[in-house]
Amino acid sequence: MNGWTDGDVVPFLQRLVPHVGRSVAALAEKWREMAAADGSGEVEVDVAEWFQEVTEEAITRATFGGSYNDGRVVFGMQSQLMAFASEAFRKVLVPGYRFMPTKKNWLSWKLDRGIRRNLTRLIGRRSEEAAAAMKAAEGEKADTGSFRDLLGLMINASQRTTRAPAAKAIPVHDMVEECKTLFFAGKQTTTNLLTWATVLLAMHPEWQERARREVLDVCGSDDPSKEHLPRLKTLGMIINETLRLYPPAVATIRRAKADVRLSDGCMIPRDMELLIPIMAIHHDARHWGQDAAQFNPARFAGGAARAAKHPLAFIPFGLGARMCVGQNLARLEAKLTMAVLLRRFQIRTSPNYVHAPTVLMLLYPQYGAPLIFRPLASQPSAADSTTSSSCPRPEFLCQD
Ligand code: HEM
Fold first, then answer.
1. By CB distance 3.0 to 4.6 Å, which of 182, 203, 224, 396 could disulfide with 228?
2. What mean pLDDT value characterizes the chain?
3. Cα–ligand 1 centroid distance for 379 (angstroms)
């Protein structure tokens, strides 16, 4: 998936802005109606649950683009499968249990077959369309290489390699697995980022107010567009500080390709697996100073690389060749979601909120994230939406 350039990624992400913006605005509208229906004029929602809608829509659009409706069916099935997997993860592991013909296992197998069948059919149809487009473009300077969605990127790469004698096409099976990986890697991680960022805004009203003022200054009476997002610097700092304190992926793994001797004399033999403890590095006072455990977005004012004493002390998306391919999409979703919500609501923690981060593959709030949303007096009209026009600079790609 790493064969894309900034020239491909920027327009691709920009096209997603209106879709993600609309889905957050729709969510906010539901909360506003719920608040209006309640005598108190405010509403308590568990954002850890509700944000799932936003991130599922975003990853489905990013992966399938024009085939969104077909993709939605597939990812709907995968969502159910992931719910079963996370339930199983909470239980005691009984070796071999997953092969037993229990009702849940039957259902999981059926869902898995359905996902593969639907994806294979979709990939077949899209490949035929891409081949026809490529044929039609032969002899012309048409750009069939640029992509509108991630599946298209894979299909284009496969079609190009089919024509290059030494290269191999990407097998359909691999494309199916890549689509499944994108959903798995992109949905819950981003839901957790949105959740922790909103919780932190609720806990820190001074930063919430600062971010809201910035959103109103930059966006005026409009909902945020792709031109506005790069200018929301305070929000960028808040998102980075959220990723530092509550990195959704708490660790990653590497295997040494060769013997390596570290500067302190410690020897890492070839093939040894190393756990990179992202969360621990992010909380290490030697890198972040004595306030390492405190929420202080200001530490990111000079950019992510200069926030800590060591430039690689901030690695929420990993690093190197296998670094997360979805980080710009995740940042875009987070900025857009926070900006849309801050324009509409005052946010505070509910008395029912218990601060208990826990690791269940990812970093979750153990008892959910019930927050209280009070609609602000001046609300954007329903007709307001995230609009698009040309953006000169690929600033989505910077780490703020
Ligand atoms: C806040 C959200 C996210 C976080 C914290 C996150 C974190 C990570 C981390 C830590 C890795 C491992 C990198 C390494 O080992 O160096 C990774 C890999 C990956 N992520 Fe993300 N991710 C996020 C969102 C996404 C999204 C939205 C997508 C989908 C577009 C995505 C797709 C992937 C893929 C495909 C890989 C494997 C890359 C490879 O092995 O080459 N991630 N992510």
1. 224
2. 87
3. 35
Length of the chain, in residues: 400
Give CA–CA dist 27/225, Å, rounded.
17
- Which residue minimizes the CA distance to atom 20 of ligand 1? 324
Enumerate residues lining ligand 1, CB below 6 A: 1-2, 62, 181-182, 185-186, 189-190, 193, 248-249, 252, 316-320, 322-326, 329-330
The answer to the question of whether 179 is labelled as a binding residue is no
Q: pLDDT per residue over 141-178, tens digit each?
A: 545 445 678 888 888 888 766 555 556 778 899 999 99
> Which residue's C-alpha comes closest to atom 39 of ligand 1?
322
pLDDT digits (tens, 9 = 90+) for 256-283: 999 999 999 999 999 999 999 999 999 9
Pocket test for ligand 1, best of 324, 337, 399 (most atoms within 8 A of CB): 324
Question: Residue 301 is which amino acid?
Answer: A
Q: Which atom of ligand 1 is nearest to the CA of 252?
A: 15
What pLDDT, in 10s, does the model give residues 21-76?
999 999 999 999 999 999 899 999 999 999 999 999 999 989 988 788 888 898 88
Give the Å distance between the CA of 297 and the centre of ligand 1: 23
